[in-house]
Design goal:
The structure is a single chain. The protein is mainly α. It folds into 2 domains: 79 residues, no CATH class; 51 residues. Helices cover 58% and strands 3% of the residues.
């Protein structure tokens, strides 16, 4: 079994655990002997209390969410309570990401906003600045990408060697 297979199995197991938790939470409202009014009172009581979630953390559940889970359980059974898998494939073409990272490597002082403008001009693609920053951070060679405006060398050394003077004295010495 590969690592990807183990990860997929763990995700399925986690989804099953969540569905089981939802099932047990909706259970008191599923009694067929309850009238609509009684069921509403049960759901309101459940929504008024915070519950221990499947991961062990305390989770508030709204009445609307409980109603949705009850309808899903009634119509689709256990499978309807399993959360849908999240989209894990990137939405941006790999060549766009490579160009963005290449632009940053070419000029490390270039900001995400500048890279975004270049991408818009060259490829008619405008990802958000935050997405571009995430691409920079996700690179295995990100330690080679200094932050914009970051200086190294003598200026930094001079600043460190300069004694700190009180603000009033600095003003008088200028």
């Amino acid at each position: 079994m590969t690592a990807a297979d183990r990860e997929a199995a763990a995700r399925r197991q986690h989804a099953q655990t969540i569905a089981l938790w939802r099932w047990s939470l909706a259970e008191p409202a599923m009694d067929p002997a309850l009238t609509s009014r009684q069921r509403g009172a049960v759901v309101r009581q459940l929504a008024a209390v915070e519950h221990k979630g499947p991961s062990g953390t305390v989770v508030p559940v709204s009445r609307r969410t409980l109603d949705r889970w009850i309808v899903a359980r009634r119509e689709g059974g256990f499978d309807a309570l399993v959360p849908s898998p999240r989209q894990r494939t990137p939405r941006t073409a790999p060549d766009v990401v490579e160009l963005a990272v290449g632009l940053k490597m070419e000029n490390p002082a270039r900001t995400a906003a500048q890279v975004r403008r270049i991408l818009a001009a060259r490829m008619q693609v405008t990802p958000s600045e935050r997405a571009i920053q995430r691409w920079f951070q996700a690179r295995p060679d990100r330690h080679r990408l200094p932050a914009a405006g970051h200086r190294r060398g003598p200026v930094r050394a001079r600043r460190a060697a300069t004694p700190i003077r009180p603000r009033r004295q600095q003003h008088l010495q200028r």
